[in-house]
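Incident log, structure service

09:12 report received: a user says their structure output differs between two submissions of the same chain.
09:20 pulled the input from the user's history:
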Amino acid sequence: MSKQPPGAPPPPPVQRLRLRYAKRGRLRFTSHRDIARVFERALRRAEVPMAFSAGFSPHPKISWVGAAATGVASEAEYVEIALAEHRDPDDIRRALDASLPEGIDLLEAVEAEPGTSLPDRVQASRWEIVLAGVTHADLQAAVTAFEAAESVEVERMTKNGRRVFDTRGAVVSMAATQHDNCAILEVVVQHVTPAVRPDDVLSGLRSVSDLVTPVPPAATRLAQGPLTAEGEVADPLAPDRVAAGNPGADAGATRQVDGAVGA
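09:34 re-ran on a clean worker, output below:
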């Protein structure tokens, strides 16, 4: 990533790329601010020709979308970058992925459809939460009680102070499954304000049942994107691929990730 010379007007963006990356392993405990710093260093190492903002202190044009909270893993994190020169998206993906640390894996890069907003497409997330030490029967009882409730309020400290909000209204669907003697909660959550996180959903389950989680839960975001009429989370990059004339590109990277237990 070239540096902007002092006093020189920044070249206008000529291309916008939308990137999907995964946050895995120990990197799940990295804050979003630290991940942003890691990305900026990787962009410099990969010599990505970034477009810069104007003003006294120019900075590379990077837009983050729906970043996961510290402590959770994800297979579907998104960021948009603006370039000052045209580049092949897959060349950028390979160069940037090679410059990122293990645990942050760049899965896909597509050219943004002109005139569209990526945040407008990110309406919901699909989560998998592994509950070691919890039986399937106990989790199912908690799910049944949660779904039967009209509202399930929880309290959490936010940057604006302590807030009470309804988790039931944000949950589109949830289901209890089991894998290797671990209960698994699969849940689709709408993106609302304030955000309802996986730990908020678990707090709601505990408040309406006798659910006990003796081991810290492990949450992984499997997908985020538009919410379909069927309550599924669709791929937010699909329209960009269609606009680029390559709707089936990188099918392996853009799959809805299933079976991410222990990611």
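09:41 both user submissions now match this output. Likely a transient worker issue. Closing.
09:42 reviewer note: Helices lie at 32-45, 89-99, 118-121, 136-148, 198-207, 238-243. The radius of gyration is 20 Å.
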